[in-house]
């Protein structure tokens, strides 16, 4: 795998982590999907991970507000 793709997917995950944090949301399992490095995907994947129902509701609320802007 090319190192620029490796850096890009890690940077993207960190950008998303920061944007979520700015909205009071933490996805504890957010990170790079390591199996996608070995798969046939065009680019590696960001794994959003698991969250509890309170976090899922907060995320839905933030997304709905952003969609109405």
Give a structural overview:
- The chain is mainly alpha-helical and 69 residues long.
- Helices cover 57% and strands 9% of the residues.
- It has a two-stranded antiparallel sheet with strand order 1-2.
- It is elongated.
- The relative contact order is 0.18.
- The model has no long low-confidence stretch (mean pLDDT 89).
From the structure above, extract its key features.
single chain; 69 residues; mainly alpha; two-stranded antiparallel sheet; 3 helices; 2 strands
Write the layout of secondary structure elements.
Elements: H1 3-22, E1 31-33, H2 35-38, E2 45-47, H3 53-67
Antiparallel strand pairs: 1-2
Residue runs with pLDDT of under 50 for 5 or more positions: none
Estimate percent helicity: 55-70%
Straight-line distance between termini = 39 Å
Number of helical elements: 3
- How are strands sequenced across the largest beta sheet? 1-2
Q: In one word, what is the shape?
A: elongated
Mean pLDDT equals 89
What class would the helix/strand composition place it in?
A: mainly alpha
Mind describing the biggest β-sheet?
Answer: 2 strands, antiparallel
Order of helices and strands: HEHEH
- The tally of beta strands, per DSSP, is 2
What portion of the residues fall into strands of 2 or more residues? Answer: 5-15%
Please state the CA-atom Rg, rounded to the nearest Å. 14 Å
């Amino acid at each position: 795998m090319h190192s620029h793709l490796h850096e890009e997917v890690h940077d993207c995950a960190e950008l998303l982590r920061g944007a979520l944090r700015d909205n009071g949301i933490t996805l504890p399992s957010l990170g790079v999907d390591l199996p996608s490095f070995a798969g046939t995907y065009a680019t590696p994947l960001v794994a959003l991970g698991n969250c509890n129902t309170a976090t899922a509701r907060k995320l839905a609320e933030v997304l709905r507000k952003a969609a109405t802007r």
